[in-house]
């Protein structure tokens, strides 16, 4: 029998996890309870619900959350469960309502989650005791996070304090979603996240993504470089320092912040230069949208990346942003949800060509989905044993895996202490 606590405690540093962490339904259930049930999760953007009455439904495992903008313009979140007999309330991913009405017995809730109408419940029935169950929700400069725990991690405030200046110039609240794509990856959510946290695989697998990205921005073994490669790496390091100084002088915070393994609400950010024209994640490396985002005045401002544990990564450029969330389905499948955002006044066909806007990441996501599937197939076999991370190109994978192990053990230790 798989002993979760023992396996976590004796996990071999610098290596992938044992196979059951990617396969076992019981481990997946623990992940959903501890990681996805106790931490802040990225689920969308403010402009997913741009107007009062707009609703977005998000599914995390078997839990559905309705995110609404109320009549005062505030964003709220509730469990998507009627308080009568448990029917789901919202059936579409997105809709617009006056009130939330259960189709089963027509119980009606306002956008604050209060039960305002329930027929035939008797004169002693107290509607105030049967409002929708709220879920914690926070907006970080237009990025929406929810927490399913009764008491969410308090260090979200610290992440917000550090990240808000980085994100503010892109002003996601004044953007719109140009396109959304959901890809079901045939792999455990941790494999999807591990794949994202390194670019060791990029050169051999991402011909589109490596057009705008510099290879030396994602780690390398200096001892393996040829003289001309070493020169290129040194030039990149100088360019990075120069760009950071230039961008920060323009009011664009750019320097690395790495809190991947020393916070409960862990994150990482840095603004990185882009190759070629240096403007965007496109095949010609030029801006995809004529209208720049927020207060951005320079299209050649690199790409700000922002990662959060356990389920997101994002890229913010002068002309558009791409945000990603990983939503587990079961032990061996996950949804990768990608949204491309442009300035709210940008018009498709005039200010941007949609295929050009989404082309690099549509191709990259498909390629990564295949790679995650290969890993999932491999860990099912008897030949799988935990393999070593590269200390030069997968050091951030190790930090994220170490965060996962630490958060699991902390919760399990607390649970045992209470018991």
From TrEMBL:
Keyword Lyase applies: no
An MF annotation (GO) of this entry: iron ion binding
Segments forming domain Rieske: 40-146
Cofactor: Fe cation
Gene3D superfamilies: Naphthalene 1,2-dioxygenase Alpha Subunit, Chain A, domain 1, Rieske [2Fe-2S] iron-sulphur domain
Keywords for this protein: 2Fe-2S, Dioxygenase, Iron, Iron-sulfur, Metal-binding, Oxidoreductase
Upper classification of the organism: Bacteria, Pseudomonadati, Pseudomonadota, Alphaproteobacteria, Hyphomicrobiales
Keyword Ligase set for record: no
Protein name from the UniProt record: Aromatic ring-hydroxylating dioxygenase subunit alpha
Source organism of the structure: Fulvimarina endophytica
């Amino acid at each position: 029998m798989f002993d979760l606590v023992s396996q976590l405690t004796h996990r071999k540093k610098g290596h992938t996890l044992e196979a059951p962490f990617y396969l076992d339904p019981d481990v997946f259930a623990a992940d959903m309870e501890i990681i996805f049930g106790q931490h802040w999760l990225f689920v969308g953007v403010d402009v997913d619900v741009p107007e009062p009455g707009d609703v977005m439904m998000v599914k995390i495992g078997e839990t559905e959350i309705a995110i609404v903008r109320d009549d005062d313009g505030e964003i709220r979140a509730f469990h998507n469960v009627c308080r009568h007999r448990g029917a789901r309330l919202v059936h579409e991913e997105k809709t617009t309502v006056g009130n939330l009405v259960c189709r089963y017995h027509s119980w009606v809730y306002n956008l604050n989650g209060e039960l305002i109408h329930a027929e035939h419940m008797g004169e002693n029935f107290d509607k105030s005791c049967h409002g929708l169950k709220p879920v914690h929700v926070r907006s970080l400069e237009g990025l929406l996070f929810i927490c399913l725990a009764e008491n969410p991690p308090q260090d979200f405030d610290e992440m917000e304090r550090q990240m808000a200046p980085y994100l503010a110039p892109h002003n996601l609240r004044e953007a719109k979603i140009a396109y959304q794509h959901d890809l079901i990856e045939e792999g455990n959510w941790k494999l999807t996240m591990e794949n994202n946290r390194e670019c060791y695989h990029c050169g051999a697998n991402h011909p589109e993504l490596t057009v705008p990205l510099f290879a030396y921005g994602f780690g390398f073994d200096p001892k393996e470089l040829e003289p001309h490669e070493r020169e290129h790496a040194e030039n990149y390091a100088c360019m990075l320092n120069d760009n950071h100084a230039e961008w920060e002088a323009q009011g664009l915070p750019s320097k690395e912040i790495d809190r991947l393994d020393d916070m409960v609400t862990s994150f990482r950010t840095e603004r990185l230069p882009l190759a070629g024209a240096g403007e965007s994640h496109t095949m010609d490396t030029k801006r995809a949208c004529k209208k720049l985002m927020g207060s951005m005045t320079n299209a050649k401002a690199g790409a700000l990346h922002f990662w959060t544990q356990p389920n997101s990564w994002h890229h913010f450029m002068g002309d558009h942003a791409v945000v990603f969330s990983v939503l587990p389905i079961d032990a061996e499948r996950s949804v990768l949800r990608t949204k491309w955002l442009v300035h709210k006044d940008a018009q498709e066909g005039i200010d941007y060509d949609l295929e050009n806007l989404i082309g690099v990441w549509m191709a990259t996501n498909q390629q990564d989905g295949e790679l995650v599937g290969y890993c999932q197939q491999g860990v099912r076999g008897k030949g799988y044993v935990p393999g070593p991370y590269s200390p030069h190109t997968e050091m951030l994978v190790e930090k994220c895996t170490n965060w996962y192990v630490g958060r699991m053990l902390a919760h399990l230790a607390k649970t045992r202490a209470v018991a």
